[in-house]
Structures are given as structure tokens and as C-alpha cells.
Design brief:
- Helices cover 37% and strands 0% of the residues.
- With 49 residues, the chain is an all-alpha fold.
- It has a domain of 30 residues.
- The protein is elongated and about 60 Å long.
- The N and C termini lie far apart (53 Å).
């Protein structure tokens, strides 16, 4: 008997971070911290990029 599944997936304009393959997920924390910093800089009118 064949089995299968479908997972609905929305299309994102931004990169999706893979969080499940890293011990401790330290890299994800750093990436999110950097993204929040960039958002604060942009909101203050000081975009770094």
C-alpha cells in the first residue's frame, strides 16, 4: 500500500531559514538577530546596505 502526504507551502519573497539541522540552532539565532538589527537601522533611516 503506497502512502504519501502533502504539506501546503506558501511562496515567500525572502529566504527561508532551515532550522532543523543544526545542533543548538546557534546560527539561526545569529541570523535572526542580524535581521532585526537591519530592520531597526532601516526604520531609523540608516540602512546599512
Amino acid at each position: 500500500m503506497a502512502r504519501g502526504a502533502r504539506i501546503p507551502w506558501r511562496k515567500f519573497d525572502q529566504q527561508v531559514l532551515d532550522y532543523d539541522c543544526h545542533e543548538g540552532n546557534y546560527a539561526v539565532e545569529g541570523a535572526m538577530r542580524g535581521a532585526r538589527y537591519q530592520e531597526r537601522q532601516a526604520a531609523a533611516g540608516n540602512p546599512r546596505e
